[in-house]
Design a protein that fits this description.
- The protein is mainly alpha-helical.
- The chain has 15 helices and 2 strands.
- The radius of gyration is 22 Å and the shape is globular.
Length: 402
C-alpha cells in the first residue's frame, strides 16, 4: 500500500460514522449506476412506453435544478445589490449549487438511452427545442459555478493572482449566473407545455415557465436558510440567524407573486375540468396550502426574524412544497384515469439515494478541507499582492513571505 493510500484510509477512519454511512450509500449508488450502464434502461428500470421518464427525471433533474438555485439567488442579492453582510451565505450556496448541477448532469446521463452520444448536443444544434436550451444552459451554468467554486480553492492553496481575478469577476459572474438560470429554470416549465392533453388542468397553463422560475427563486432562498441552520447545528458553524433575517423578508414577497400568478392561471388560463379527480385535487391543495400559503404566513411573522427553529420550519415547508409541485407536474399530473401506476425499481431508488448522499458527503468534505464558512467581508484582506507566493501573517499582523 502506498503512503498516499494509507493517509487517505487513516483520514476516512477518523470520519464521523454519519459520513461513513454516506460513503456506503454513494458506493451503493455507484454500483447500481454501473449495473444500469451494463444492462440498459429496460432491464434495470420500470420505465416503459407509458412512462418514458420516472424518478431520475422527476427528482434528479426537474426537482434538483430548483433545489440548487440558492447560488444564483444569493449571488444577485449579495453581489449585484451589494448587500455585503450576506457574503458568508454565498460560498455555501455556491458549493450546494455546483454539487447540485454536477449531480444533475449525472442524472441526465443515467436517463439517456445512449449516454455515449450526449456530446452530440454541442455539435448538432436544435435551436427550436427547449431541451437544447436547458442542456446548454446547464453546462454553461455548471461552468460558472465551477469558476466561482475556485474562490475557496485559490485561498486554500494560496493562488493569489487567480484569486484577485476571481474577486474582480464576482459581479459579472453573479449577473451571468442569474441570466443563465432564468433561461433554464423557466425552460424546465416549457417542457410540459407540449403535454396539452396529457398534463392535468390543475397544472397545465401557458404561465408554467414563469411559475417554474419564481418557484426556483423562493426555493433557492429557502435552501440557504435550511443549509445555514443545519451547518450551525451539526457542523459547529456560527449561527447566521441575523443574516437570514434579510431572506425571511424577501421570501414571502416572492411567494405572494407566485401564488397570485398560480391562481390567475388557474382561474383564467386553464381549460376543462379542474377538480374532477380527488387524488390530484388533494395533491394540488397540499402543494399550494402547505408549500406556499402556510410558509408565506410563517415568514411574515415578526417572530420568524429571530427564531431559527421557525425559520427552519417555514423553509422546510417551502422545499417540500416545491418537491411535490415538480412531481405533480412531471409525474402525478401526467397519470391518466385507469392507467397503470409507475413505481421506481430498487435500482432506480438506489441511484437516487446515492446521488443525494453524494451531495451531502461532498458538501461536508469540501467544507472540511476548504475555507467555505470562514469568508466574512470584515475579515478578508482584498489587497492581494501580484505574486503566486503564499503570504503568512505573523502574530504581530505583519505579512511574512514564505
Amino acid at each position: 500500500m502506498t503512503a498516499a493510500a494509507r493517509v487517505i484510509i487513516n483520514e476516512i477512519k477518523g470520519y464521523h460514522r454519519f459520513l461513513k454511512f454516506m460513503i456506503f450509500l454513494v458506493v451503493l449508488g455507484a454500483l447500481a449506476s454501473a449495473v444500469r450502464f451494463i444492462f440498459g434502461l429496460g432491464a434495470t428500470t420500470n420505465l416503459n412506453d407509458t412512462y418514458p421518464w420516472g424518478l431520475w427525471i422527476s427528482f434528479d433533474v426537474v426537482t434538483a435544478v430548483p433545489l440548487a438555485a440558492g447560488a444564483f439567488t444569493i449571488g444577485v442579492v449579495a453581489h449585484v445589490f451589494h448587500i455585503k453582510r450576506l457574503e458568508p451565505l454565498v460560498r455555501p450556496a455556491i458549493i450546494t449549487g455546483f454539487l447540485g448541477y454536477s449531480l444533475v448532469c449525472i442524472g441526465l446521463l443515467l436517463d439517456l438511452g445512449q449516454p455515449h452520444k450526449g456530446w452530440h448536443t454541442l455539435v448538432y444544434w436544435n435551436v427550436h427545442s427547449p431541451m437544447f436550451e436547458v442542456s446548454m444552459c446547464v453546462m454553461a451554468y455548471t461552468t460558472v459555478l465551477f469558476l466561482e467554486f475556485l474562490h475557496p480553492v485559490s485561498e486554500r492553496f494560496g493562488w493569489h493572482i487567480p484569486l484577485r481575478l476571481l474577486r474582480n469577476l464576482e459581479v459579472p459572474f453573479a449577473v451571468l449566473a442569474a441570466s443563465i438560470s432564468t433561461l433554464h429554470q423557466s425552460s424546465l416549465g416549457t417542457f410540459f407545455l407540449i403535454a396539452v392533453d396529457k398534463l392535468h388542468n390543475l397544472w397545465y397553463n401557458p404561465l408554467l415557465p414563469l411559475q417554474f422560475w419564481l418557484s426556483a427563486i423562493f426555493t433557492g432562498l429557502s435552501i440557504i436558510i435550511f443549509e445555514a441552520t443545519m451547518v450551525h447545528r451539526y457542523m459547529n458553524q456560527p449561527d447566521e440567524t441575523e443574516l437570514l433575517k434579510t431572506l425571511t423578508k424577501i421570501i414571502p414577497w416572492v411567494l405572494g407573486v407566485y401564488l397570485a400568478v398560480k391562481l390567475y392561471a388557474l382561474a383564467f388560463l386553464s381549460h376543462g375540468r379542474l377538480f374532477d379527480r380527488p387524488v390530484l385535487t388533494t395533491l394540488f391543495l397540499v402543494e399550494v396550502l402547505g408549500g406556499v400559503v402556510l410558509p408565506m404566513i410563517l415568514f411574515t411573522l415578526e417572530r420568524c426574524r429571530t427564531d431559527s427553529r421557525l425559520q427552519l420550519r417555514a423553509a422546510t415547508l417551502v422545499i417540500c412544497g416545491l418537491i411535490l409541485n415538480r412531481f405533480n407536474v412531471s409525474m402525478f399530473g401526467m397519470i391518466q384515469p385507469d392507467q397503470q401506476i409507475y413505481f421506481p425499481s430498487l435500482l432506480e431508488s438506489l441511484v437516487t439515494i446515492g446521488i443525494i448522499a453524494a451531495h451531502v458527503l461532498f458538501f461536508v468534505l469540501i467544507a472540511k478541507y476548504f475555507p467555505v464558512f470562514e469568508h466574512h467581508p470584515e475579515t478578508v484582506d482584498y489587497s492581494i499582492p501580484d505574486t503566486f507566493r503564499k503570504i503568512d501573517k505573523g502574530t504581530n499582523g505583519v505579512a511574512n513571505e514564505v
